[in-house]
Amino acid sequence: FQTTARHTVSVGAEACFDIALCRPRASAASHETDAGQLQALLPHLSTVIALQRRLRGLNERASNLSGLLDRVDEGVIVTDATGRVISLNALASGMVAEADGLDLEGGRIRAATPAATQSLRAAIGAVAVPQGVERSCRLPRTSHRLPLRVAVIPLWRLEGSAPAGSAARVALFVKETDGPRTVDREALADVFRLTVRESEIAALLISGTDLVAVAAQLGIGLG
């Protein structure tokens, strides 16, 4: 075989690729024919590679965003304007799996009762329109625990304008009103001039832990 055409193509500032056409030495094809075919092919190859790089970057950003949302102490659910779920963070996935006030029906978000479901989906639809503003609602729970608190936020504002129809997206921030409270112990110690141990005790008390359990958890005497 012999190389009949070769070209180096740059893709961005730090990447490039080489492409070469080779034919058997006995082939009657001319170098000019192969060179012309290569020149016609190069723009399409460059486009494909550029798209692959963009998709790789988008996938990395999506993965980073997913990891960030998993650190939020509230359930986060992204839906379209009809309430069809697009993504959930880890905490929201647990809530849906528990099906105590919130789950899925045919891929759409559903509450514990038909009335609560209608109210939630109506709030999602109202927020998804161009003039939509944040709404909130409370969802009853089948376990008779305190209701879930849901804030419905229009995500399309981050994109500058609302897409038409069901393409508009909203985010649901779901909070368990009877769940444990998280406390920044360092901030607590700084504001109230507490020692490290005092701030640990205060944080546990704020979370609802009684004195006996605090003493046992920290390995200190009740007195």
What are the defining features of this structure?
26% strand, 223 residues, alpha+beta
Structural summary, described in words:
This protein has 223 residues and is an alpha+beta fold. Helices cover 40% and strands 26% of the residues. It is built from 6 helices and 9 strands. A 5-stranded antiparallel sheet has the order 4-3-9-8-7. A hairpin with a 3-residue loop joins strand 1 and strand 2. It starts with a strand and ends in a 5-residue tail after the last helix.
What is the fold's blueprint, element by element?
Blueprint: E1 2-11, E2 15-23, H1 31-69, E3 75-80, E4 85-88, H2 90-98, E5 102-105, E6 108-111, H3 114-127, E7 135-139, E8 148-154, E9 169-176, H4 185-192, H5 196-206, H6 211-218
Antiparallel strand pairs: 1-2, 3-4, 3-9, 5-6, 7-8, 8-9
TL;DR?
The protein is α+β, with helices and mostly antiparallel strands and 223 residues long.
Q: What best-fitting shape do the alpha-carbon axes yield?
A: elongated
Helix fraction by DSSP (H/I, runs of at least 4): 25-40%
Q: What count of helical segments does DSSP give?
A: 6
Mean pLDDT equals: 80
Strand order of the largest sheet: 4-3-9-8-7
Q: What is the β-strand count?
A: 9
Rg measurement, Å: 29 Å
Distance between the termini: 89 Å
Largest sheet: 5 strands, antiparallel
Structural class: alpha+beta
Order of SSEs: EEHEEHEEHEEEHHH
**Unreliable segments (pLDDT under 50, ≥5 consecutive)?**
none
Q: What fraction strand?
A: 25-35%
